[in-house]
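Predict structure. Input: Uroporphyrinogen-III synthase, 269 residues.
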Amino acid sequence: MNQINPELPLAGTTILVTRAAGQSSEFCQLLQQQGAVAIEMPALEITPPSSWFALDEAIANLHTFDWLILTSTNGVDYFFSRLQDKGQNPHILEPVKIAVVGKKTAGSLAQYGLSPDFIPPDFVADSLVEHFPEELANQKILFPRVETGGREVLVQELTAKGAKVAEVPAYQSGCPSSIAPEILEALQQQSIDIITFASSKTVQYFYQLVKDKLTLDKLEKITVASIGPQTSKTCQQLLGKVDIEATEYTLGGLTEAIVKSQTHRQATL
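Output follows.
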């Protein structure tokens, strides 16, 4: 068993990771490299949409779109998986320009041999409209997205600028049926130092999983760390606080913010 270097900034820190099952390993590794003990508690389940009809229709008419917008790795993976299921090669998209939000989404796109034509400077969807490289009036845009519960701001802003947006469900996200007993006990015993949230939905579903089993005063001594402003807003609404917010809205940025906070805390003890 590898010994943790006690000089690493997060040595002795136990951190709860609430990302979806199968998507938390990269973040756990980033935290472990800084000396943390990372515990996985998936607060999100990603599944196919209730119907493929709208996405299949869009795939059959890809040539009619000017832009494809992808705002998450889930959107990329489910869109291209369905594209291939329908017998299409990813390079059918070459006449269509692609905009993505965030480096991680761009990285997922690269796995299919494609590069984005536009990435907004800030890793949030709102920045996409503000910095869009072309006039949006009359642009026909395909937006594969989560089936329910996603933010509506992006579509509203694109539409307000005159774009014609086809929203199609590409995947669904939901709340797991239960929380592992050992995780609940760790929260009740306050043996977890930091809880991390990488999306508003993970906050919502975490709260749904613990609200009848854990009083909010149990969270008072546990640090709440958020990946960005929208997630922080949900933390404040449901958990009553947010202690750390990343300045770069990525998993690396969240890790960096946690390290900075813990280093400052140690220096003031």
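The chain has a mean pLDDT of 91.
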